[in-house]
Amino acid sequence: MAAPMSNVEEIRSRVILGKFGVKNVHTTDFPGNYPGFDDTWDMKRFQKNFRVDVVHLDENSMEFDMVGIDAAIANAFRRILLAEVPTMAIEKVFIYNNTSIVQDEVLAHRLGLIPIKADPRLFEFKNTGEESAEEEASEIDTIQLQLKIKCSRNPRASKDSSDPRELYLNHMVYSKDIEWVPIGNQADVFADSCIRPVHDDILIAQLRPGQELDIIMHCVKGLGKDHAKFSPVATASYRLLPEITLLETVEGEKAERLKRCFSRGVIDLEDAHGKKVAKVVNSRLDTCSREVLRHSDLKNCVTLGRVRDHFIFTVESTGILPPDVLVTEAIKVLMAKCQSFLSEMNSVNME
């Protein structure tokens, strides 16, 4: 049965949250689906409706709105951020001496997951056909790091002390102990940006007197789809913009209960002729818990929805690159994919 024309716009543009389910979750605005609606894709209309609004940006995280696109494009953008923006990470670990209690394999795995502050755009992908010998590292595709540390007793420690921090020297091995060893002309090229771990306080191992580590590491350029250590983001997610509509005036004690049903800052109470009246202030802050639908006297006072083409993106960088740079690089990857697809289509048509 065809939907009434009065509900078509809601079906096309809103996801409705009900007590026991979610409605209008599928995209329906394709050509010919609804009489009287021209849903053919148009470049001018897309350019008019599409926009990106940056809401928050700092050194490690970014929140922005992407409006006027389909969920498939938003999800492709998210997946590219997770798995297809390249970074530099430790790939080869040459252990010359490890007398700690940490096994070589576990130690190598821990080292590989340490994010390295190095711009991957300045390096090339390493040729997979090459042998993994240490001497074949090149300045254009490899970063060499060294971890050389030995634990010893502190001669100045008190005889009555039992604190390892006072008794021993270098007993805690942190990422700050990893040193960059330039290859070729890297010292000149990266003179202004010293290559190092993103965080200095990542614990690698614990040592006791006489135990030591002597390790050489090679960082190469890679993608998150090959290994999670290459992923440039800690999180990359999106959600639809919540939309809360009050269907009637809610006053007094009901208004106070309505306010408590939503996240802080969503509903506010204002005075109207001596009564407290509920008002939607910022639906963006809502977590869509649907708590209000549990109250029999409130559930018919409000409609909970989400705007279908308004995506709120949250990107948290691991620190290798700023989040705004990651977003820019993800857009470039998506554009390259589109160009590759068009080239394949053209080659098929020519044949």
Automatic annotation (TrEMBL):
Keywords: DNA-directed RNA polymerase, Nucleus, Transcription
Record-annotated DNA-directed RNA polymerase RpoA/D/Rpb3-type domain positions: 61-344
CDD domains according to UniProt: RNAP_I_II_AC40 (cd07032)
Localization per record: Nucleus
Keyword Electron transport on entry: no
SUPFAM superfamilies with a match to the protein in the record: Insert subdomain of RNA polymerase alpha subunit, RBP11-like subunits of RNA polymerase
The keyword DNA-binding appears for this protein: no
A GO cellular component annotation in the UniProt record: DNA-directed RNA polymerase complex
Pfam families: RNA_pol_A_bac, RNA_pol_L
Domain of life: Eukaryota
Family per similarity comment: Belongs to the archaeal Rpo3/eukaryotic RPB3 RNA polymerase subunit family.
Protein name: DNA-directed RNA polymerases I and III subunit RPAC1
Organism of this sequence: Characodon lateralis
